[in-house]
Amino acid sequence: MGGKVVRIKEHPILKFDRGKELAFFFNGRELLGHEGETIAAALHAAGVRELSTSAVLHRPRGFFCAIGTCSSCLMVVNGMPNVRVCVERLAAGMIVETQQGRGDLGASV
Amino acid sequence: MLKKTGVPSSEELAPAYPPEERMKQGAVAIIECFQNIPCNPCATSCPRGAIQAFDDINDLPKFDPALCNGCAICVANCPGLAIFVVDEAYSEAESLVKLPHEFVPLPKAGDEVVVYNRAGEEIGQGKVLRVQNPASFDRTAVVHLVVPRAYARDVRFLSVGVGARDENH
Amino acid sequence: MHRYDICVIGGGPAGLSAAKAAGNAGAKVLLIDENDRLGGQLIKQTHMFFGSEKQQAGTRGIDISSQLVDAIGTMPNVEVYLECAALGLYDDKVLTMLHKKRYEKIAATKFIVATGASERMLAFVGNDLPGVYGAGAVQTLMNVYGVSPGARVLMIGAGNIGLIVSYQLLQAGVNVVAILEASPHIGGYLVHAAKVRRAGVPILTSHTIKEAYGARAVEGATICELDEKWQVRPGSERKIAVDVVCLAVGLSPLTDLLWQADCRMIHVTELGGHVAWRDANLCTSQGHIYIAGDVAGVEEASSAMVEGELAGLAAAKELGLATPALELGLSEAREQLRALRSGPVGDKIRTGLALAQSGEVFGIA
Questions:
Q1: What integer pLDDT is reported at residue B164 of this predicted model?
Q2: Is it the case that residue C364 has pLDDT exceeding 60?
Q3: What is the H or E stretch that residue B29 is in?
Q4: Shortest Cα–Cα distance, C119 to chain A (Å)
């Protein structure tokens, strides 16, 4: 049934001060987010809930704790693996990719 | 039973209701607070001293309905949204109920709304007389609803047309 | 290396209150927090707080947060490091940290650890699927970023957090299909339960989740009833279509730093797990380390704030900053904590605290 994930427009208590809109890339696709939000929030707003796959069984993983303590949300950002996207802020032009398992530190290591 | 379902039984509710003679006189607060938790904003917000200052903040509110005029300031100040105002002297066939409401869209005067009881069951319709939403209420609006007399002691929630609620739980 | 009188680790309600109290007492304070803004869990609390006027009852958590942060901002003797994660706390009273991705060290005479607590996990098939979120995570998405977590939520846990987050989900326009509670009674404040029941959300006590399922994310859940022995009642399983399973099954104090700093630790179930032993001034077995807030025992934000005040004043007093005003502040804080905890809903905390402060320690240090 797929959740309809949307940005909340009207709220009885809160006013959302969304920063300016900016474009970033997710697995080659251009998406829009807002300055000041985390990568995970921007992805979620765009309907992306699968952020990585587990190391051994390749199961889909999303985020869980949203405060940077559970390691469920690790993704590759601008080539760097193991970025906790639930606390990392979005920047214009960021290249965000699904991390497969433990992530690759690259040939330089 | 409240502790199991979140819905008070009529026995549990009874102490919240002032005597019938007072109910006939007009608007009065109905304080549906049955658990000893550390909390006292109802007493500190009442401008008429109808809710006594707490000796121990874990006490249940001590309410004197004779001093209450149903102004609903306590309704907006209760952190548990557990206070309502019922005016059974409104008219022959209808009563006025004041409910706290923290949802959007807020209803407007003249709106017809669906009304629900404490168990979330739809019991009929009401008409919005007025919405009190001053800055001092800090975003807890108080909706004044005119409902058939028989509902006044049951109506505890309203929704404006189609809400986020799913009927097929 | 910079030196301070008091370093407060964690800028949530307890840490903010500790820094404010210590600052007001005249101490030179450093407050650090790993996030890029102060407030901890307060920044997502849209509901009115309980307690008394002394803990700002009736004020929304988000506004209490702003008040505390603004107060700190006006104090020249309180410095704040954001994006600063504590790494290690050493016997020579040096704290190592990662401050904006640089390794730094500071020294302080006293430390107040106010690192809070984190969500517990629940074991069930499919609990690693995208869409299974901690209650705090759901709050962050909706209340901080204005992003709806999904369309249909199954909430697990009818303690205060489960009930409050369910109400906040409704306010965000999200359907909460049911709240499940494994025990036979609702654990949170009954007024919170009443608010969601009248909005049409069922609360199913003696129920739990068996499985979350879906191809790449949560598409549904199998729930079941439990009998008096907490075993699954055979044949009670049923499936419901949801796209979010929200876990509100308790918090666990984030005590890593206290273990590393060699504080005597004790397991106290009533406080949420392992906590540091402490005296009546919230000082641990390491005389230079104090604790405050959920890390000292999972409780409420109102008591976290008062504990922070108590620890801040107690640490300042140890530095020789005692004045009649400080002593008054200390006894006021103790009295407020006593009042907050004296009712029936404080039974568990009082039992836990007696153990955590006891002269005999049963835990492994």
A1: 41
A2: no
A3: strand B28-31
A4: 7
Q: Is the pLDDT of residue A23 over 70?
A: yes
CB C12 within 8 A of CB C116: yes
Chain A, 8 to 67: residues with Cβ < 8 Å from chain B are 10-13
C356/C291 Cα distance (integer angstroms): 12
Six token digits for residue C321: 């900053």
Any idea what the Cα angle at residue C235 is, between residues C230 and C239, rounded to 5°? 95
Pick the CATH number of C121-247 from 3.50.50.60, 3.40.250.10, 3.40.50.2300, 2.40.50.100: 3.50.50.60
User: What is the per-residue pLDDT for A5?
Assistant: 57
**Nearest to B34, CA basis, from C193, C184, C52:** C193
> Is the pLDDT confidence value at C120 over 70?
yes
A1 interface with B at CB cutoff 8 Å? no
Residue C221 has pLDDT above 90, yes or no: yes
Domain ranges for chain B, please list them: 2-159
Out of B77-91, C26-40, C41-55, C111-125, least confident range: C41-55
- Domain A21-100's class? alpha beta
CB–CB contact C52 B37 (8 Å)? no
User: Taking all residues of chain A, what is their mean pLDDT, rounded to a whole number?
Assistant: 89
CATH architecture of C2-118+251-356: 3-Layer(bba) Sandwich (3.50)
Q: For residue C341, what is the DSSP state? A: H
Q: Where in chain C is the domain with CATH 3.50.50.60?
A: 2-118+251-356, 121-247
List, for residues C272-322, the tens digit of each pLDDT value.
999 999 999 999 999 999 999 999 999 999 999 999 999 999 999 999 999
Q: Hey, are the CB atoms on A13 and B139 less than 8 Å from each other?
A: yes
* Shortest Cα–Cα distance, B152 to chain A (Å): 26
Q: Which residue from C22, C13, C98 is spatially nearest to C63, judged by alpha carbons?
A: C13
Measured CA to CA, the distance from residue C45 to residue C13 in angstroms comes to 11
**H/E/C letters for each residue in C193-242?**
HHHHHHCCCCEEECEEEEEEECCCCCCEEEEEEECCCCCECCCCCEEEEC
Rounded to the nearest 5 degrees, what angle is found at the Cα of B66, between the Cα atoms of B64 and B69? 100
Decide if C282 contacts C292 (C-beta within 8 A).
yes
Residue extents of the structural domains in chain A = 21-100
Lowest mean pLDDT among A70-74, A103-107, B1-5, C230-234: A103-107
pTM score: 0.93
Please name every residue paired with C86 in a beta bridge, in sequence order, or none if there are none: C97
Residue B166 pLDDT grade (very low, low, confident, very high; cuts 50, 70, 90):
very low
